[in-house]
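Could you show me just one protein sequence together with its fold in token form as a worked example?
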Amino acid sequence: PVAYSIDGEQYIAVAVSWGGAVALAGGIPPGPKPERARIMAFKLGAGAVLPPLPEARALTQPPEPWTQDAQVLDQGRTLYMDFCLPCHGNGVVGNGSVPDLRHLPSGFYEAWDAIVLDGALVKAGMVGFSDVLSPDDSAAIKAYVLTRAQQDWELSQQASWWVATKKWFYDKVAVVLLWLAELAS
């Protein structure tokens, strides 16, 4: 939070949303309806009502990965972790501050090498990696990303009660694992 004043009026501004650097790099997934990031400024003594959040974009089915070869997908995962994770999140789970690679319009997948290798989106902050990645490396990363996109799409098509049940179960398993780790240390 930041406090400031303009013409004698005091304000407090706060960045609000799910995520941040830890959630981004850690791949901490948002809830079923991720919050939209925004900066909220409050004027002391004011009585305004917050505007509604914009509607979340509906997911579209991603293209099928070009391969299911476990070795290629493992190579893509490793390369993704080395080069893409700091901005696009662990497990290809982005927090919305940069594009979530699982939910791109199909044109981005079609222009993958131009973006990833050649830096076609450098003005938007996405540098090219042709100096450190080969076309085969780029293809492996794309296959891994598309595999994760397909998994996310399949999850989005499941009944919300089933997703909530699985989330509840995995949350309980995580608590038990943390408890066991504490006992072991």
Summary: The chain has a mean pLDDT of 85. The CA atoms of residues 114 and 154 lie 28 Å apart.
